[in-house]
């Protein structure tokens, strides 16, 4: 069977014939617009989750302490203000508990599990000066009257600290205090040195590190 079409010109007529075999048709399944939007959103969501997990993993490098802060009810402006109060070596990140838990899986930071409830912002401290890193939030909390937005928990040196135990973290000696104590011990009788050595393990480690640093600086000079 042939299909024909005739084109007329002022002085002539031309007939062109087509065979069915010369026609090819293709069928493209229609995807509902709503379904396509859901697919795109799902891909973006998955990508965002992976990005968040990677960000948390990067913050774990050389991290000394991780603390959770209950942020339910915070305004965007409050978050922006809060972030500017922390030292440069302390980062505040908002991330879902499930994503943080995924990032810390298999590490010493898994001890954070008890505070994986509610809405948390996460404080990553990359300094041995723990009290100086925690103090900005305490000040902010008091100024903004955010009594209900307390620390939800923290992990330091592999140990979990509940909210009621934060005083122990907030009163840790600073490097300068440890250094001063070391110098005082070296100038005093041997019993003072023994007293320093009998202090908690962390104080001893900090003391030795400070003394080694002093010797290195003097040697370099």
UniProtKB/TrEMBL annotation:
Keywords assigned: Chloroplast, Plastid, Ribonucleoprotein, Ribosomal protein, RNA-binding, rRNA-binding, Transit peptide
Location of the protein in the cell: Plastid, Chloroplast
UniProt GO molecular function? rRNA binding
Asked if the record carries the keyword Transit peptide, the reply is: yes
- Listed SUPFAM superfamilies: Ribosomal protein L10-like
Listed GO cellular component terms? chloroplast; ribonucleoprotein complex; ribosome
Provide the family line: Belongs to the universal ribosomal protein uL10 family.
The record's section on Pfam families has: Ribosomal_L10
> What is the name of this protein?
Large ribosomal subunit protein uL10c
Give the chief site where it resides. plastid
Q: Which organism is it from?
A: Artemisia annua
Coiled coil spans? none
Lineage of the organism: Eukaryota, Viridiplantae, Streptophyta, Embryophyta, Tracheophyta
Q: Which domain of life is it from?
A: Eukaryota
InterPro entries per the UniProt record, alphabetical: Ribosomal_uL10, Ribosomal_uL10-like_sf, Ribosomal_uL10_bac, Ribosomal_uL10_bac_type
- Indicate whether Zinc-finger appears among the record's keywords: no
